[in-house]
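Ticket closed. Logging final result for ATP-dependent 6-phosphofructokinase.
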Amino acid sequence: MAQPDTKKIFFENLSGAGKAIAVLTSGGDAQGMNAAVRAVVRMGLYVGAKVYFIHEGYQGMVDGGENIEEASWESVSSMLQVGGTVIGSARCKEFRNHEGRLKAAHNLVLQGITNLCVIGGDGSLTGANLFREEWSGLLTELVEQGLIEADAVQKYSALHIVGMVGSIDNDFCGTDMTIGTDSALHRIIEVVDAIMTTAQSHQRTFVLEVMGRHCGYLALVSALACGADWVLIPEMPPEDGWEDKMCKKLSATRSRGTRLNIIIVAEGAIDRHGTPITSGIVKDLVVKCLGFDTRVTILGHVQRGGTPSAFDRILASRMGVEAVLALLETTANTPACVVSLRGNQSVRLPLMECVQMTQEVQRAMDGKRFEEAVKLRGRSFENNLRTYKLLAHRKPESELPVSNFNVAVLNVGAPAAGMNAAVRSAVRVGISEGHKMFAVSDGFEGFYKGQIREVKWADVGGWTGQGGSLLGTKRTLPAKHVEKIAEQMRMNNINALLIVGGFEAFLSLLELITARGKYEEFCVPMVMVPATVSNNVPGSDLSIGADTALNAITTTCDRIKQSASGTKRRVFIIETMGGYCGYLASVGGLAAGADAAYIYEEPFDIKDLQANVEHLTEKMKTSIQRGLVLRNENCNENYTTDFIYQLYSEEGKGVFDSRKNVLGHMQQGGAPSPFDRNFGTKISAKAMQWVTKKLTETFRKGKGRVFANMEDSCCLLGMRRRALVFQPVVQLKDETDFVHRIPKEQWWLKLRPLMKILAKYKTSYDVSDSGQLEHVIRNRPKESDASVAM
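Final structure:
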């Protein structure tokens, strides 16, 4: 007899009936906090718990009264796209005192609240943990003062706390990204892109100061994402004499024909002796030493404001749901935890371990142990710093290794935002490793026509922020022209290939491997970096370009929904790209707050469509005025966008009207998002380092040439769960549905129930993959670590 999957339908197994959950935001605000609040409220109500808002953070908890308000499903409608925190946040001196916490405990007990979801930084979370530790003592005091009944001590014996980190600085150890960081990067990059055009016009140098008093993450990643000439961060102050080095670098850049310089300074930047380095100091230095026309822009609170990015909405929604799960599973002995993401996986980490690690970073910086501070920030921060140094600072020709290898880079398939960042990274890392780098225009079509040219370091300057494909890209596969391509490989003495592209790039590598038996020219290391808005490449959970497309969808959906503001009830049917892959429709639906998303991977029929219409009709009879339905372009050949629009129009008569939009190629256009720039840069750098390693391994001294014909010499570099992994493309054939051009298994399908739950559908949700409590890994420095490749 088959055993039931006890973790499959958690609605039946992890009931919140009789529980009261309160959610508060504390400390500085961050974009995405509202998405987290919405997810906590709706998930809490879904499992049968009572959910409360605590307005104005800990101040509201201390003051009580109207500050603690019961939440309803409708009370969190239309807040997903709003920046900041609609329930308010305030710094509270009173809560730091015992008397303040006693008042807070009294106010929670009055409402029967023993489960707290705290969204804030390390200070807010540390305060929550102290409150939890004191809880039983506080209740005893309240009984002694006659403020609560004696049986309340037993009834409310334990306070359970789960934290979500909301901080634009990304300064909390143990988590890859905190809520608000990606949105802050969007604000910074929008400003940098705008400044670059005016700087170029006047041949100016711009010094940008970004937030980060104790953490240089925003400065470092924005420098990586825009190709800044210099960056100053508190964790890794520049060596003594940095002033001369920086001025020489700026001067050398101008001498190569560049018309502008960008310097990014974190507000907490210091030198090796702890002396602050301000944006004004940097400006005066450039003017004095070089005489360049220099301007300072201090971004300030612009970075905190605005609409949350698609990434922050998805992160916050997932974390909100995970926080409720963690609260339902907690016991009196469970330590307070933080829910977070590593890679694309949910994790739960002991709150105080993370706080202590975060405090260790500051102690390392205060003690001038800067290498240790960088290590303690985590692998992601360390890799960002290493990659920036590799790409921004060109070594003199005399210091470069001489490899005598020629490496060709090309784009294959449809254009995707971030491709140019990947090409720039590959070219510069290749040059740093001593290779001659060649660019192939127009993919394999340009290859067989001989459109191949050598590219130098300066040729790819300014490419990071450019959308589309500057090399040119075509869907042409190599099989028809394999003889001519082999001839071009031989003529140009190409020793390795790095391909940036989508499903066509994957098919191209399979064809080239087959051609190895006939043409030895293809017996060279070949690697593919996935880049497609559809995110349909097997072997990788994410592709370059998908995040930019998601942001385009989310922004457009926000505007479309807003267009119905103040009018009668309306449902929008929106068609997204993706071929047969439903990633954009599903994850875009989660980010935009959709009521349904139709995809090929999850078959549906007329009964499902009818159920969706009835569900929306019920919702429209309440205070909810707008509905959003996404449809993947190839989800069903009969249930077209027009058909679904007409069905909703007919069945919704008298309750709502319908409108349709086909988003089309706007999803492929535009400047790449910070995530895609950063992801493309780092993954391509790693791919080029693999190429160097394989060239060394496969060089036959006797024959004086490279010969690589093993399966592992032709790989796809993809993100799998938490790591970047090289996988032989031949081994990925079994994981691929070639007819529909999608992987057979796709991780994001597990996110679909979240969208349904948050849209008020009763559904099953597999929690077997939910976060498990892990310990924070301490990444301490060793002597040899400084030179380890990414």
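The chain has a mean pLDDT of 91. No further action required.
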